[in-house]
Protein 1
Amino acid sequence: MSTNKLPSQSEDFPAWYVEVVKRAELAEHGPAKGSMIIKPHGYAIWEHTQRALDDRFKATGHENLYFPLLIPMSLLGKEADHVEGFAPQVAVVTHGGGQELEEPLAIRPSSESIIWSTYKRWIQSYRDLPLLYNQWCNVMRWEMRTRLFLRTSEFLWQEGHTAHATSDEAVEEALRMLEVYREVAEDVLAIPVIKGRKSAGERFPGAVETYCIEGLMRDTKALQCGTSHFLGQNFAKAYDVTFLNADGQQEHAWATSWGFSARMVGGTIMAHGDDAGLRLPPAVAPIQVVIVPISRSEEERASVIGVAERIRSELAAQGVRVRVDDREQHRPGYKFAEWELKGVPVRVELGPRDVAADRVVVAERTGGDKAEVPVAELIAGIRARLEGIQRALYAEALAYREANTHEITSYAAFASGVAEQGGFWRGAWCGDAACEAEIAQRTKATIRFLPIEPTDPGTTCMHCGKPGVDVAHWARAY
């Protein structure tokens, strides 16, 4: 671990982010452009996030399955909007086994095409519906400018793909899964998010409606944290997926898709980190409590290690992810700095005098002074302590978002404000795609979301002066 001080967030947030990912041993660049090697500490954060999502998927009736990575280009080409939207990002395999392939194969940018061509065989009647399936996989979207976790050519995610007998059922499903995403973002990752609807220009290719959750990072930029799409019958029509409905009529199936990716590891870093490094929510922290024994002799070491192991065992029995850092090659100060950088929520220091007094010294990563705590009190209160840290991180992030959300009083105020202050800017929009594009081109801000239900702003568009038809939240974003 480097002992050099991290760049400060206020002076150079991108450099801070890069250094935290590197020094906290979360990930590093792979040998192929745009690829990423996720190291154990980073992957464990994703595993805990994945488990929280998967448990909720199954609780809402979904099953996991798996579809192939390689998609014949003829399948991908059947859905014009989908291909048009993804075309610049699609990676294509043209050779295999030393020979040119008869048909090129796309490396999946998403799986709608291969899934809906398969659903054609699986769906015959309304009795076959709904299909509620999810897959955990990697996808490939060729990126010119990459940043670890946030935007890489290959990334890990889950993608749900469901088929329904009615439009209402499909919309209900898309919104149900959006709520699952909100719950995981807020209750697990401690990132406050707002649920919304994308403008037509920001929709997923081929979707009728794209719903999203959006969060605000500590550099005042927005991050799309998850999306859920109502696909209507677009993919069913493209792949001729029909069923015999309850009235005996042939009808195209109604569809949703929804995805949540490992970019949220990056989101967790940026929503909570400080100038000392990570501050991980206990719900996803690979190590929730680290115990650092301190001794000056072999006799002291044996005594301190013995007590540390007893504490570890009792915490682990409560389901706490706990580690004793008994490495002899590093001094205590080095260990304190390392675990602070890696975001461990609770650090416990234990020396000979603490053993004699049946106490420990406790430091929480969210701040505050060290405190001497009886061993029994530490063990009995550890769950409440971790829950308190989880709540504190969420509350701090929520307060930050609220302090950086602004009402648009004029286009000039918005244009200067979004450049100088960042944050969310809320105001009336006319609904015209040309107006939206002009604002984005001039300010580098995009509509992050509209309300789930269209909302009359009661005033004119902040840019063109036409009657407002919706309330838009704008921001510069990742």
Protein 2
Amino acid sequence: MTPSRYWDGQTYDRVSAPMEAMGLAVLERLPLRGDETVVDAGCGSGRVTAALLERLPRGRVIAVDGSASMIAAARERLGGRRGLELRVGDLLDLDLGAERADAVLSTATFHWIADHAALFRRLRAALREGGLLVAQCGGAGNIAATHAAAREVGAREPFAPYFEGWTGPWRFAGPQETEELLRAAGFARARCWLEERPVTPDDPQTYLREINLGAHLERLPEELREPFVDAVLARHRSPVTLDYVRLNIDAVA
């Protein structure tokens, strides 16, 4: 995917343990013999990719991310692991050539892509008949309190001029609309559901800056970024707990 914001792969890797925990639970839903070809769609810094490789001793992982910094962090983590191909690329342009994957795994990525219809068509084209899509991303209601706090802060001076008319790059979809788009894209079966997964980060300042508010901060000059994060954090109770809602996707091509 073309990055909708800049990601610092090293910083993300340092604070992304909650993302890894959610991702590993998604991986547990993917049945594997060990010899399949799996696309890791939005691999980030490679934490979940490492666990996926362990499940594929005779298989192959094509790990794709739109951020060159994330791929660099994944390369540092995973080195020259056998069966791994790392790609910087837009998921909307994913092309495996004549090859077809047995499965697509994705965690914490799809909500950064606005056009889910085009995304699902591209993923379906990458899968063999009967191939599996197992994914999780931010769903309807995800981090609603944090975004409400950010809107409140962003409506005030000195931040307001930078957020006028801005709605953000994310898409937090619901299960029914997602199932309909998957079937329209050619998936034979699709089941989607929402799951509450609250997160209490060890370092909320860095976590919000890198993961939840990064798109906001890109709109601000450097001198206003930390004051913005401070103001949003001040509107959370201590300890800071983020109201994550995840959209789970299980589909068969």
Protein 3
Amino acid sequence: MAGVFSMKVKTFYLAMLLAILGPTVDGRAMDAPPTEADARTARLFPRPAALEPQIAFWHAIFTEYSSHQVVLHDALHLDKVYKVLDFRPHVDTMSEGELAALERVETDLELDRVRATLLRLHALGAQPESLTADERHIYDLFADDPAPDRFLAAADEKRLHSQRGLRERFGDGIRASRRYFPEMERIFREEGLPPELTRLPLIESCFNLRAYSKVGAAGIWQFMPKTGRLYMRVDNLVDERRDPISSTRAAAQFLSRVHDQLDSWPLAITAYNHGPDGIARAVDEVGSSDIGTIIRDYRGKSFGFASRNFYAEFLAALDVERDGEKHFGPLPADRPLHLNERRLARPVGIEAAARLARTDRTEIAELNPALSPLVVSGRRPIPAGYKLRLPGSGSPGFESRLAEFAAEERVTRVAAPAPAASEGRIVRASAKSRVAVRPTVTTHRVRRGQTLSHIARQHRVSVQSLRRANRLGKSTTVKAGQVLKVVHSQNET
């Protein structure tokens, strides 16, 4: 497989060499006069020379390597890349499960081959002869390391590492982030924090708005439940970790507290992954607060690959996001997020909230990702105190409509007959004594490709009911963006 992947490895080395010898700032050569913004960024987020190979490695992972390419490398010295496995030719011929299994098996086999090669090079001694192409390639990687046991040390299972490419996910994350960054940067500036920190979700979750890890971390900032509850609401009705804006406010507060403790942005950023107490312990043990020194010398049991690389990933993400169009082509100029929030003084069902906001339940759910499935499904109301995010068209007059709705509900409850008592037991009121239930009216915003039949099935009403409620003729069709009234009568569920 060496012949197949040698060109990829050479390309990887060239990219890292260019990053080390000729980095740029905002597309300008390093010998161009630095701007005030450049000086500020360099002061807040220093780039130790020792970290440049790591930064170059992650730059390539974010921009060059596909999710179906796996880079085999040394976990301590990321510029030592043994091989790049390319599974893209199998994407169209295998199922997702089959391809995942193949990738696992081939990756494990190749790591075993690399380990065997390293052990053979160690056994051959200082001046080996008659090396194969694969052996010569790995032997040359360690030309800068004079240690006699360098190959034996590199063969340790903790040193052999595989990293899948992230190009597709990273590009999607940058596209999704563009809508949110203006508001996120505003929040960070309001908290007195560098706005560059808003790029951390690109390495935490690739800005996946639905990110949820196996260990329970959620949202673009990947807060764990315990930490999340310190800064936001996390329960069975509302989980603000899943809301990009609410979780950004929480992240700003958390990072501010960590920076106050560690007094260094490189350390605070690393602490976002490793924990502030762990980084404080690293500073004490190493005797330095220099991030390069800590990454080189600290060997804490839980200070593994992810923690050692977190700051380098952040610096690479800053570079990549800044030059996003260069790496991923034209990026959509999506409208910045505009928040129309109204704090609810009382609980309200999501269908009623959507009707009062002149929209449908789907849009309310999209605008309010913190609402749990219990609330979105209508089984539990949106709780009092929640800041409900509304579409721009439904925001004006929402409070007055909500007040009228609440008043109508109170009248209905007062008008309802009290349970009758008979011989010490509570007896249900007869059907004749019940107050008549009025039809429920909701709204639906027509989406591209939807017909009246689709909408009727979705809301469990008849097409005739939709036409009647909206005064539509038999030949009238609906258009995307049109808002329809949906009347739910007692015999339509």
